[in-house]
């Protein structure tokens, strides 16, 4: 895709030369000219929440993408407005905080074989959303979207079909172009039960085929990492910023415990440690990540449920505190948030869990100041808020409930 005005596309030869001379960070800054982050005081405490809407597959009760305001003292939320959109399964903000990208699991792009991605401009005054355009996600049921640190591309994980897509950002408008790179993952099927599965867990993850669940760049932007929950694999590529194409890394795939269903990931330790939450067995698997080669070396496996827990559960989200000291995991069916302390060497220690005061906590988010955590209780139709103890990382319920139909994902303006 062509870049606007003063940002010409880079060929591979000039990209390599520029990167070696100025470093990847400088190259990214060049790509984002005219769209630098701007901090607006009025944006403090504002967040967007994606919700499932009524339909035969999701049976949601929400209306689309909700804009909410957080009380900076108490952490309680209030609804500002809602932008109608079918099944907003994930939302992500660009670096400038001027554009929001939202996935829809519905086939709203007149493509029976794909979901869609919609770009919205954010009004600088009231932060309401104005639609820019909608494009195909490439495959059905898109479930995760992230913005590459360069500001040039968005990365999409499509659950059905087990594929990933790279879509170019049109810098004149912040809108999106059609996918310029797509890839599906294939490998032998695994059993639905992991050996480390909690006793009596009848809420099985889908292992009938590839099920790509998350994709994002490492903090440097040099590599892209995705997890395939259906095939129990982590995939790693480098990215060619001039084309948006992904190139398999030196070790392009790692297989995890069969049946474990890796779902989401987060980077810690300045991008040198990768934590992956596995949905089926509620385990965080930790890896040393080499920012030069993209290679992953496993070093720890830690359970996130109480020692004697038995019964059905599906882990969902994993987030890390802004200071990098604590890790939080949502537990669907168990209806809890697990709290893990991160040691100096990156190892984890399960120290606490907190009832979410809701049902089926899917996504969760921490405000930019690291004071509060919010649980999106999908089946309880509410978002609950918790104060984070800065010393222990433990959570205490604020008493705040936001009634909201089928909330599943939350992203803060900062």
UniProtKB/TrEMBL annotation:
The keyword Amino-acid biosynthesis does not apply. The keyword Transmembrane does not apply. Keywords: Carbohydrate metabolism, Glucose metabolism. GO terms for molecular function: 6-phosphogluconolactonase activity. InterPro entries: Cycloisomerase_2, Haem_d1_sf, Lactonase_7-beta_prop, TAT_signal, WD40/YVTN_repeat-like_dom_sf. GO terms for cellular component: cytosol. Residues 188-210 are annotated as: Disordered. One of its GO terms (biological process) is glucose metabolic process. PANTHER family: 6-PHOSPHOGLUCONOLACTONASE, 6-PHOSPHOGLUCONOLACTONASE-RELATED. Belongs to the cycloisomerase 2 family. This is Lactonase family protein.
